[in-house]
């Protein structure tokens, strides 16, 4: 069954497991044909024994064990007794591992087989591939990926071209399973053009390649790729390829072709047939017919993982029929089913991957659009926050792109990435970004605030404004229409900054907002837009108000509940003695805050750890993005984004302003800033791109002078307004952003009392 997103990835991985089960490690002795007729049991045993004696190998051992298996388990056991070590024993344990249903017991048997392979590289690859697939079937993508990385490395040492191709295919499916499509398609390379038509790994390569093409804007290429896969042998392969061809036809609007493909789909009248038939009928404008098909799909008892997708489709059909109250109930069923499944997942990374799946987001978007049309902004706000609350902080997983071409290097970097993701995903489970609060709770908790949430639903960008507890919604236009302006604003092109500034917040939104007002931005899909630099009526947005970014309204509420501090101040700079600008900035900051800066060797990992409950942590150091994620480079090691969350390093204010001499690679400060928020830090000042030394020191100095420690968002806004008054280029001052609550707990109490 092929639907796309998370479901599609699982299909590809199941295909991979099937291919490996049908394939054995290739070696120079793979041409031995001692198993031509296993029905002649004694002759088969004799022939295979002779073949093994001539050339002991993974392949001949496999065939010998097969021959003994024809006599039954007792014969295999006797063979193991006389051959407790070596290839024969390894093959027997491999066979037993395949027969065991219990995942952990099966893994133990494969590991025993691996230990018995000794220096047999082909045998090692076979066991590692089997282990990787078993881990994937058990729902542990981290172990699957790291095990596959070992298989790729052993295959490179074996230097068998076909084995290398096979491990590249499996590596690609594992990378795509953790959401790293770009690295996955790079690992796959041109394997589909090098594998033979009867190779069991060819269908996996083609399905993986076609799925990437289909979801990345190349439907015509995808059609060619899936057509080739559909022509291969194997009912399951043809079924998966056929389903993807229907997806392509629907994406191209070729409803005639989609209908033709539905009628020729294997297993007519099954769940998949009804699913696709319903979608074609809905696209053709015959929702009553579509409802019949989708109800037939439900009658066939779909799997739990597919139920929310079907429920969403049923809701869409009910909307088309004008039965909106029933549609609302159906969308809530889809959401509740999905969220229940999410809670049941034992592997934290799988929660992350499932939350990113566009199929799973669809019922939230549909319900949001229904509420907007019905004039129910509070319900629209509620469901948008529920959707955002289920979204993962993608910035936390910012990693360096895997640019290596050598499969072994790709596999090693992928393994590092998987380990880092495991740490951070596990830690996030109990962090504030994981909290989901109802709209009523949020409205009550944020009754004194102004929050602007940008949300994408049904291909439109929406502004959901919560103004002192009162929600309202603006349709800002389609994603396609706004995207050129968004791209231009990110590139700091003045015409785009002006045009987008007029579009993103209509004039009535600014009523009653003064220069000291803090607007909390949940930027979502617009997170890279430099909001402070946008222009409205000839003035920069930062001149009209101060801004504090938060992933969601729920995170803002949770951060305000966390204000334990020991009032200490930690200033760290220039750990390796190669950042004179950072050293000067740290010294100046320390003098302003009345402490001694930790420089050189004192700028250590331990110093960062002591700031876990500090009032202020200010860092002027190298930061970078690696395959394992973003990290701070210190005198005696590194502190990664995963470490920040895992160790709960949560000062009340973290200032991570990077000067030019400490220029970062990728999005290190963004990922680290998100990690500090996830750990519980109330406020973070971070630079989205590097600044020159003088500008950085000037902005940070003005930030502290303007009360930035107590009022970070307003302090930064004032510093940036001073920069504007001094005609400092927007590319300099707009780099700095405030994330979090915008004010300290003490300042908020004082303000509320006034």
Give the amount of beta strand, in percent: 5-15%
Q: Runs with pLDDT <50, length 5+?
A: 1-6, 21-32, 346-354, 390-398
Terminal Cα separation, in Å? 61 Å
Computed CA radius of gyration, to the nearest angstrom: 29 Å
Oligomer: single chain
Helical content class: 55-70%
Q: Work out the helix count.
A: 36
Which structural class best describes the helix and strand composition? alpha/beta
Lateral arrangement of strands in the main beta sheet: 9-8-10-14-15-16
> Biggest sheet: strands, sense, closure?
6 strands, mixed
Name the average pLDDT. 83
Q: How many β-strands, per DSSP?
A: 16
C-alpha geometry: globular
Question: Which properties best describe this structure?
Answer:
single chain; 754 residues; 36 helices; 16 strands; globular
Describe the structure.
The structure is a single chain. The protein is of the alpha/beta class and 754 residues long. Strand 5 (535-536) and strand 6 (539-540) form a beta hairpin. A six-stranded mixed β-sheet has the order 9-8-10-14-15-16, sandwiched between helices. It has a five-stranded mixed β-sheet with strand order 3-2-1-4-7. It has 36 helices and 16 strands. The longest helix is centred in the middle third of the chain and has 22 residues, at 407-428. The N and C termini lie far apart (61 Å). The model is unreliable at 1-6, 21-32, 346-354 and 390-398 (pLDDT under 50). The protein is globular, with a radius of gyration of 29 Å.
């Amino acid at each position: 069954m092929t639907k796309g997103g998370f479901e599609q990835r699982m299909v590809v991985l199941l295909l991979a497991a099937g291919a490996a089960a049908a394939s054995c490690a290739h070696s120079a002795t793979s041409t031995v044909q001692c198993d031509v007729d296993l029905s002649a049991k004694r002759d088969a045993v004799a022939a295979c024994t002779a073949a093994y004696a001539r050339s002991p190998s993974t392949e001949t051992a496999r065939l010998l064990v097969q021959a003994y298996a024809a006599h039954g388990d007792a014969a295999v056991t006797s063979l193991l007794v006389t051959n407790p070590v070596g290839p024969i024993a390894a093959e027997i344990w491999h066979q037993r591992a395949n027969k065991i249903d219990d995942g952990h017991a099966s893994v133990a048997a494969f590991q025993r087989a691996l230990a018995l392979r000794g220096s047999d590289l082909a045998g090692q690859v076979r066991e590692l591939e089997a282990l990787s697939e078993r881990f994937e079937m058990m729902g542990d993508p981290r172990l699957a990926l790291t095990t596959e990385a070992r298989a790729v490395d052993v295959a490179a040492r074996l230097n068998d071209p076909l084995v290398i191709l096979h491990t590249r295919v499996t590596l690609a499916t594992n990378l795509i399973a953790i959401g790293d499509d770009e690295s996955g398609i790079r690992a796959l390379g041109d394997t589909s053009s090098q594998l033979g038509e009867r190779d069991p790994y060819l269908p996996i390569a083609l399905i993986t390649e076609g799925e990437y093409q289909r979801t990345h804007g190349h439907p015509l290429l995808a059609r060619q790729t899936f057509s080739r896969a559909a022509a291969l042998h194997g009912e399951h392969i043809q079924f998966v390829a056929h389903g993807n061809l229907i997806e392509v036809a629907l994406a191209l609007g070729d409803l005639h072709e989609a209908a033709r493909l539905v009628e020729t789909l294997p297993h007519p009248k099954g769940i998949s047939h009804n699913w696709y038939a319903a979608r074609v009928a809905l696209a053709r404008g015959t929702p009553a017919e579509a409802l019949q098909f989708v109800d037939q799909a439900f009658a066939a008892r779909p799997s739990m993982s597919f139920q929310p997708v079907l429920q969403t489709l049923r809701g869409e059909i009910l909307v088309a029929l004008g039965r909106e109250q029933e549609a609302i109930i159906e969308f809530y069923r889809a959401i509740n089913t999905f969220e229940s499944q999410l809670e049941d997942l034992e592997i934290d990374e799988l929660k992350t991957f499932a939350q990113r799946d566009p199929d799973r987001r669809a019922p939230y978007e549909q319900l949001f659009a229904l509420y907007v049309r019905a004039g129910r902004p509070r319900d629209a706000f509620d469901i948008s926050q529920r959707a955002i609350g289920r979204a993962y902080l993608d910035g936390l997983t910012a990693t360096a792109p895997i640019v290596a071409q050598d499969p072994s290097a790709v596999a090693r970097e992928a393994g590092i990435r998987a380990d880092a993701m495991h740490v951070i995903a596990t830690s996030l489970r109990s962090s504030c970004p994981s909290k989901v609060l109802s709209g009523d709770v949020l409205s009550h908790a944020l009754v004194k605030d102004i929050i602007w949430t940008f949300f994408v639903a049904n291909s439109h960008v929406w502004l959901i404004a919560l103004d002192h507890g009162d929600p309202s919604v603006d349709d800002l236009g389609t994603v396609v229409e706004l995207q050129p302006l968004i791209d231009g604003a990110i590139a700091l092109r003045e015409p785009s900054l002006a045009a987008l500034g007029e579009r993103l917040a209509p004039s009535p939104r600014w009523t009653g907002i003064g220069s000291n007002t803090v607007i909390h931005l949940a930027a979502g899909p617009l997170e890279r837009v430099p909001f402070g630099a946008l222009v409205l009526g000839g003035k920069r947005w930062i001149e009209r108000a101060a801004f504090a970014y938060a992933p969601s309204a729920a995170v803002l509420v949770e951060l305000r509940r966390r204000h334990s501090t020991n009032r200490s101040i930690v200033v760290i700079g220039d750990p390796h003695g190669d950042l004179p600008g950072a050293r000067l900035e740290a010294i100046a900051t320390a003098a302003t805050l009345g402490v001694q800066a930790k420089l050189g060797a004192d700028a250590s990992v331990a110093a960062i750890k002591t700031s876990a409950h500090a009032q202020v942590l200010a860092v002027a150091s190298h930061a970078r993005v690696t395959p394992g994620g973003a990290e701070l480079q210190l005198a005696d090691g590194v502190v990664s984004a995963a470490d920040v969350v895992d160790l709960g390093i949560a000062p009340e204010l973290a200032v991570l302003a990077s000067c030019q001499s400490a220029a970062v690679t990728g999005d290190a400060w963004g990922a680290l800033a998100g990690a500090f928020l996830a750990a519980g830090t109330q406020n973070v000042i971070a630079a989205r791109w590097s600044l020159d030394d003088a500008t950085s020191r000037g902005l940070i100095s003005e930030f502290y002078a303007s009360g930035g420690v107590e009022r970070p968002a307003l302090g930064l806004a004032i510093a940036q307004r001073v920069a504007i008054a001094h005609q400092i280029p927007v590319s300099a001052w707009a780099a700095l952003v405030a994330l979090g609550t915008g004010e300290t707990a003490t300042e908020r109490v004082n303000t509320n009392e006034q």
